[in-house]
Write a structure and sequence with these properties.
It is a single chain. The protein is mainly beta. 4% of the residues lie in helices and 45% in strands. The chain is built from one helix and 14 strands, in the order E-E-E-E-E-E-E-E-E-E-E-E-E-E-H. The protein is elongated, with a radius of gyration of 18 Å.
Length: 220
């Protein structure tokens, strides 16, 4: 379960909450699936699941659920927590925390700084932006940019020495509050690899001072 606020368990696809909420990181058994009343902008569907003490339906949505198993990274010093794939590892670097598979060259680098300016300009040297979209990460609205290697990039930050430049780069940047900003870079080779990045940023939590999502209700 990726959702930092938890997921309501319902009595039927799109039905009433049964009073139980799955917490972030919960692992459940999937019993059935329904495409009825997709809860994510009309897409996805519903999983019938068996939790430790409850059976019911939860939203099938890439923002909230994933078929992978995760480990928890949590650091007061770094200022965030997140779930990362069980087959990945992490290393704390001077410029942030690097997450990477135990085999392979993909990398997720998360950096917290006092402002977006302190994080450097968007992008990395040698990459050109292809798309830019507004997304929400734990109540914070930011820009997700996708880059391809090559072309004519705008002025951008150099690639950290701990990162192996790959064919593509995905980058999320946002202001968390008046004293913090976040940058998450993902170097990857194929479009299918983006699932790892989406699962990661959908699980990120920022500690106090609280962001708007900290007082919200569980997701559908």
């Amino acid at each position: 379960m990726l959702s930092v606020l938890g997921l309501n368990i319902r009595d039927a696809p799109g039905g009433k909450p049964v009073g139980s909420v799955l917490a972030q990181g919960a692992v459940v058994t999937v019993l059935d699936h329904s495409d009825q009343n997709g809860p994510c902008d009309g897409k996805g569907g519903w999983f019938k699941i068996k939790a430790q003490t409850t059976t019911g339906w939860i939203a099938d949505c890439d923002y909230y659920t994933s078929p992978h198993l995760f480990n928890l990274y949590q650091s007061d010093a770094q200022g965030f927590s997140a779930l990362y794939y069980q087959e990945w590892t992490f290393a704390e670097q001077p410029d942030g925390v690097v997450f990477r598979p135990q085999s392979g060259s993909q990398t997720i680098l998360l950096t917290i700084a006092k402002s977006l300016d302190a994080l450097g300009p968007p992008g990395r040297a040698g990459y050109a932006v292809t798309t830019a979209d507004t997304i929400l990460v734990y109540g914070v609205t930011g820009i997700l940019r996708i880059y391809d290697r090559g072309g004519s990039p705008v002025v951008s930050s150099p690639t950290p020495s701990a990162i192996t430049p790959l064919a593509h780069l995905a980058e999320f940047r946002a202001t968390i509050d008046g004293s913090r900003a976040i940058r998450i870079d993902f170097n990857y080779s194929n479009a299918g690899d983006l699932a790892a990045f989406r699962d990661f940023y959908n699980s990120v939590i920022f500690p106090a001072p609280a962001t708007p999502a900290s007082s919200a209700t569980p997701h559908p």
